[in-house]
Design goal:
It is built from 14 helices and 18 strands. The protein is α/β, with parallel strands linked by helices and 416 residues long. It has a five-stranded parallel beta sheet, with helices on both faces. Helix 13 runs parallel beside helix 14.
Length: 416
């Protein structure tokens, strides 16, 4: 029996796909945990950003240099988006498959595609990932993921609910993810609010993290979504990408909102869901971004004050319309802007977290940390490091100190 090593990188959707591939391999081959013991490596790579892609290619070359490896299968987004870079490697060990049916054919397994019914090898027994759809309804000019994931394809709500019930029996935290959770169901005469209502009808001591949704969908379903966030099992965590504070740039990006609309949604959501954690995405240096446009983004961050800002430098990507746009922002200026914005946003995050000192929370311990510590999440999805705990426990803590990215807690004596 051949030994197969499976590794995956990138977003939560990619991690879910990787876990399902591992299950297929485990059921039919010998799944190994070390690439140096593998006959075959299956590599589910990410290529959303150029630096990420460069890292993927470097890892691939190291894997190809292993004498024990007979075949290295590149799968997923990297295979779909930048086959040109893979072809340039020119190694007979390298196989490139875009989809699961092709991979199944290579492994001599029955042909299937990803679905909620598939089982997975969970890396973290506390956290499960449930993709609710693939693809999206947008066409952002900076994005290459559209090429990889395609148009929206929502999974059947009954199948999702059945899967959720099973996951809730073995996990304490479930991530609902997609390329854009907000447009779920619009291709099958359903909707995200309908799905959330169905899922939350299941009893249990679990917590749900809703993945990224774009502003136009929050606007469409605002009252319904805000009401669901009052459920004690929903993390009060909203990932709503802005991308730029300049309406001119937002239009060039082909985004379906203005900054004023975005900010009004954030203000109203904060009124409805007190103390909710806001996460957002920003792209610095999009083609045509002037100093004035950049300053509008700086001002936007100072006004919105997101708890978790994800700041990325713009890079041209294959199949992205913006790659052919004029007025590309040059490297030195790009670095200057991103460093400035990162510094400003880090201070904003720190100010948010310092306000947590002295408060008490029940946290769900969901991962191990550094130096034998554990990390749990408050209901606002704030990470709290504690010294002693057991994975999967709900424990009461008092926040004793803070950093921009996380909190430190002391376990209280009233835990039972």
């Amino acid at each position: 029996m051949q030994n197969i090593f499976v590794e995956g990188y990138g977003c939560s959707h990619n991690l879910s796909d990787t876990a399902k591939i591992k299950w297929l391999v485990k059921e039919n081959y010998s799944l190994v945990e070390n690439p140096e013991k593998a006959d075959i490596i299956i590599f589910n790579g990410c290529t959303v950003k150029k630096p990420t892609e460069n890292h993927m290619l470097n890892v691939l070359k190291k894997r190809l240099a292993l004498k024990n490896v007979n075949s290295l299968v590149v799968f997923g987004c990297l295979a779909r988006i930048n086959k040109k870079e893979l072809d340039a490697i020119q190694n007979t060990k390298l196989k490139v498959f875009e989809g699961l049916p092709e991979l199944c054919h290579f492994l001599k397994l029955p042909i299937i595609d990803f679905s909620p019914a598939m089982l997975e090898c969970m890396q973290n027994k506390i956290i499960s990932i449930l993709p609710i759809s693939t693809g999206c309804l947008g066409n952002c000019s900076f994005c290459c993921v559209k090429k990889a994931r395609g148009n929206l394809k929502s999974f059947n709500p009954q199948e999702l609910n059945a899967k959720f019930k099973n996951l809730a029996k073995q996990s304490k935290e479930i991530w609902l993810c997609s390329e854009d959770t907000g447009c779920y169901g619009l291709d099958i005469k359903s909707s995200l609010p309908e799905l959330l209502e169905t899922i939350l009808s299941n009893e249990g001591a679990y917590r749900i993290r809703l993945g990224m949704l774009n502003p136009q969908w929050l606007d469409r379903y605002f009252d319904q979504i805000a009401d669901f966030y009052t459920d004690k099992r929903m993390y009060k965590f909203l990932h709503l990408p802005l991308q730029s504070g300049s309406d001119k740039i937002l239009k060039l990006m082909n985004r379906a909102y203005t900054f004023d609309k975005y900010y009004s949604l954030i203000k109203e959501f904060r009124k409805k869901v007190k103390n909710c954690t806001i996460s957002t995405d920003i792209i610095v240096g999009f083609p045509g971004e002037t100093e004035e446009d950049f300053q509008k983004t700086v001002t936007a961050m100072q006004v919105v004050k997101p708890d978790v800002p994800n700041i990325s430098r713009y890079y041209n990507r294959p199949f992205a319309a913006a790659s052919s746009f004029k007025d590309q922002v040059q490297g030195r200026e790009l670095k200057k802007r991103s460093r400035l914005l990162f510094s400003i946003c880090r201070e904003i995050s720190f100010e948010h977290n310092k306000k947590e000192i002295g408060k008490t929370y029940e946290i769900l311990v969901n991962e191990t940390g550094k130096n034998n510590s554990f990390v749990g999440r408050t209901i606002f999805y704030k990470p709290v490091a504690v010294n002693k705990a057991a994975l999967g426990d709900f424990i009461n803590v008092k926040i004793i100190s803070a950093k921009p990215t996380h909190l430190f807690g002391r376990i209280l004596d009233n835990n039972t």
